[in-house]
Give the backbone structure.
Amino acid sequence: MELTQRQIKVFKTIVEEFTRTAEPVGSHTLMNLLDFSVSSATLRNEMAALEEMGLLEKTHTSSGRIPSSKGYRYYVDHLMVKHIEPKMMNALQSIFDSRNISMEEVVRQSCDILSQMTNLTTVALGPDSRYQSLQHITLIPLNERSAVAIFVTNHGHTENKTFQFPYSVSMKDLTTCCDLLNERLVGVPLNEVVDRMMDLKPLLAANVQRHEMLFEAFVNAFVTFASDQVYFSGQSNMLYQPEFADIEKLKKMMNILEDSSLWREIASKNSGTMVRIGHDNANLLEVDDVSVVASKFKVHGEEEGQLMIVGPTRMPYNEVVALMEYVSRQIEEMFNDD
């Protein structure tokens, strides 16, 4: 598809103005926005040509035009200039300058800041437990009624869990329990560990005095560890987007945001930075005018995660894509250096 230089300027201006205002852009508005002189009639002709190419759409309520899904795709692929506001970069940098902070906390704080700054919804996906197995368990007593359990996977992912026991537990019971679990559970996929724990219950009962209490503590910890690690921030931002003013459409979108398996499926199609626009998501999201920008990060050799920003197709792609790439790059540098 070949556009003239004037058509490119007209189209790019319409995309960026509609992104800013959510209002269809007409020829008179364009005349005031363009940096060259052209008649209203000429602009109408150019807009009609862009509409015929499928890049613009005409709404029923206005004589102005709005970008189509195909138009946003053309903008992202050919015209977008990535940009981050300094205030956004400074706010995010304060997280990456922190020390003694876990990767999970960095990702969560980044999501919170991104959702606040973009007024969109952010999604973070941690490593998929189906592809990890338990490598080691360490149990560190704090006092007679508490201990810290450290779980490590074959991908180097580490999770800490503090146990608070209703009764005192001997050092011998803690050591025996930990040794049995390491002996029988190493190499077991995380999503199968709880079932294997059930098989170990008689063995624990025969060797550990407080076996029921320790069994319950570890099962609860494994359920949390093996659960789908999906974090959402800024879901309520959808309430303020004019595209979701229809309550039924908003309800459908909120249900979609709660379906972690769906976001896993979207993430599985991404190998770096991905921009899925409107109809790209129709088969998965069942909502037409929704876009997803995702960026993958990789730390500790093999452990992968993804950040996503979700919102209407009318989002500032130049800013959102730049932010996604920046945050993913900073997470990699922060934890791979460590």
Observations:
- The chain has 13 helices and ten strands.
